Amino acid sequence: MHHYEHFWLDPKFWVAVSFVIFAALVAKLVWAKATEALDARADKIRAELDEAARLRAEAEAMRRQAEADRAAALAEGEALIARAKAEAERLAAATAAEAEAAAKRRERMAMERIQAAESGALAEVRQAAAAIATAAARDVIASQLDAATDGKLIDAAVADLPRALRAA
């Protein structure tokens, strides 16, 4: 058995020390590489999370915009339908008023034609009555007046002429 006076003189000690130093250096290098890889991985995950959050915010904004556009389109559609209904009602009222006015015009024109026909018929009846009366008067006068009576009537009319002219 070897017994060294001091433990640092023992080669096993130095092998152990060198092994510990080697292990410490390797561990330091491995630790540095591992922390570097883990930091890179954490940075990559952090970047992906930031990108995901940004994309989520964009998607949320796009969803809100789409909902706003949909609501605006719906409101515009409802307004368009309301305007179309109002226009249809206005056109229906205008058409009804125009039809009523046309009916009243036709009725008025028919009444005017009826009145014109009545006036024409009445004038024809009056003319016919006047012609008949004239013919009857001519026949009566011709049958009742002779030359002597005719002379008396003419003399009376001529004598009454100055008075008739003054009255006029």
Structural class of the secondary structure composition? mainly alpha
What would you call the shape?
Answer: rod-shaped
Strands, count: 0
Quote the distance from N terminus to C terminus.
Answer: 188 Å
Key terms:
168 residues, mainly alpha, 2 helices
Task: Give an overview of the whole structure.
The chain is an all-alpha fold and 168 residues long. It has two helices and no strands. The chain has helices spanning 11-144, 147-167. The protein is rod-shaped, with a radius of gyration of 66 Å. The model has no long low-confidence stretch (mean pLDDT 88).
Could you provide a short overview of the structure?
The chain is mostly helical. The protein has helices at residues 11-144, 147-167.
Task: Please outline the helices and strands.
Layout (H helix, E strand, L loop, with lengths): L10 H134 L2 H21 L1
